């Protein structure tokens, strides 16, 4: 798989994790008390930052990477047992809220109703920035359109029979290609562009990035949305602008890292407070240099270590180590 974010090398950094206090709970979960994750395993294993039992629920988009991170942690600390399950962001938050899981890895914005529910329930949650990902807006290579604004995308996703001619292309209808509506990526696109939970325009719905690539490669009028880490041959990612007349930003590692690319998505590791000690140890590892190298190797962009970029050619970028964080780097977020 070819990534549009390949030129990434971590700089030396402290291991601060960018903690953000979040209250992200569904009110319906107030009815669920739940039991602690795998009580029998919990009782048999001593809980410490490097030992014990941990259940992690993660969005399918990053579940494989979370499992790889868990495997790397257990390789260094064999007294730890970590189970990782794929769940939607809403299900993952429900599990942590009801104490059915210890950690949730999610990549969507927090809804105000969730914040309110947590406050009313007296539950304290914290989230740690872990990884960034750009949502690539992709088209067929034969499509002459090179860039679009948020306004253009809103039109394409909220109205029927929108023509590519409105965006500088051929006079043919835009055919949106979207992930399944319950996925975190689909919800992120809908909320970022339309400020709602779904997309009203008719669209081709696909199961995952691979299916989206096939659909866009096979349809010259397609408009797709996938993880930047999944972009490969046979499609082209468009430059984006938040508003017509503003600068159009190309999708690459640097613009995602600095969060200049408009559709930049941040994944967080969410935990109850207080939580199990092994959860804290896992978060420390995941946000450390070693953990962030796994993020980079998976095609995502590190969120907790500083990275410096140096462009030597218009179409190529490299970056070198530096002793301190670059402007806009993944330092600790002081908002709590």
Describe this structure as you would to a colleague:
This protein is an alpha/beta fold. The chain has 2 domains: 150 residues, Periplasmic binding protein-like II (D-Maltodextrin-Binding Protein, domain 2, 3-Layer(aba) Sandwich); 124 residues, D-Maltodextrin-Binding Protein, domain 2 (3-Layer(aba) Sandwich), CATH 3.40.190. It is 28% helix and 23% strand. The protein has 10 helices and 15 strands. Strands 1, 2, 3, 4, 5, 7, 8, 9, 10, 12 and 13 form an 11-stranded mixed β-sheet that branches. It has a two-stranded parallel sheet with strand order 6-11. The longest helix has 17 residues. The N terminus and C terminus are likely disordered.
Question: What's the number of structural domains?
Answer: 2
CATH architecture of the largest domain: 3-Layer(aba) Sandwich
CA gyration radius, whole angstroms: 20 Å
Supply the number of helical segments. 10
CATH superfamily of the largest domain: Periplasmic binding protein-like II
Instruction: Give the CA-based shape.
Output: elongated
Proportion of residues in β-strands: 15-25%
What is the strand and helix layout of this fold?
Blueprint: E1 19-21, H1 39-44, E2 52-58, H2 60-76, E3 80-86, H3 89-97, E4 103-106, H4 112-121, E5 124-139, E6 147-149, H5 150-158, E7 175-179, H6 184-194, E8 204-206, H7 209-217, E9 222-227, E10 236-237, E11 239-241, H8 253-257, E12 264-273, H9 277-286, H10 289-297, E13 301-302, E14 310-313, E15 316-318
Parallel strand pairs: 2-3, 2-4, 6-11, 7-8, 7-9
Antiparallel strand pairs: 1-5, 4-12, 5-9, 5-10, 5-12, 5-13, 14-15
């Amino acid at each position: 798989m070819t990534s549009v974010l390949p030129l990434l090398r971590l700089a030396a950094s402290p291991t601060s994790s960018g903690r953000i206090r979040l209250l992200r709970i569904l009110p319906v979960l107030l009815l669920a008390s739940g039991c602690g994750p795998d009580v029998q395993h919990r009782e048999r294993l001593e809980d410490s930052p490097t030992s014990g039992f941990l259940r992690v629920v993660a969005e399918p988009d990053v579940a494989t990477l979370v499992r790889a991170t868990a495997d790397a942690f257990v390789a260094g600390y064999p007294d730890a047992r970590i189970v990782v399950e794929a769940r939607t962001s809403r299900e993952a938050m429900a599990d942590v809220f009801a104490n059915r899981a210890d950690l949730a890895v999610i990549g969507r914005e927090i809804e105000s109703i969730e914040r309110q529910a947590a406050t009313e329930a007296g539950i304290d949650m914290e989230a740690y920035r872990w990884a960034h990902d750009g949502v690539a807006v992709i088209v067929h290579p034969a499509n002459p359109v090179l860039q679009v604004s948020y306004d253009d995308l809103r039109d394409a996703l909220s109205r029927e029979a929108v023509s590519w001619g409105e965006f500088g292309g051929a006079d043919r209808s835009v055919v949106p290609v979207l992930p399944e509506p319950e996925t975190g990526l689909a919800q992120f696109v809908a909320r970022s562009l339309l400020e709602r939970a779904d997309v009203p325009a008719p669209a081709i719905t696909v199961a995952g990035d691979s299916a989206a690539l096939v659909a866009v490669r096979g349809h010259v009028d397609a408009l797709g949305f996938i993880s930047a880490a999944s972009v490969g041959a046979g499609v082209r990612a468009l430059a984006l602008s938040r508003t017509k007349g503003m600068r159009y930003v190309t999708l690459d590692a640097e613009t995602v890292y600095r969060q200049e690319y408009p559709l930049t998505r941040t994944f967080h590791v969410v935990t109850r407070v207080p939580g199990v000690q092994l959860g804290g140890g896992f978060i420390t590892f995941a946000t450390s240099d070693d953990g962030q190298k796994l993020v980079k190797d998976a095609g995502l962009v590190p969120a907790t270590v500083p990275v410096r970029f140096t462009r030597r050619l218009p179409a190529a970028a490299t970056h070198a180590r530096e002793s301190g964080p670059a402007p806009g780097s993944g330092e600790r977020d002081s908002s709590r």
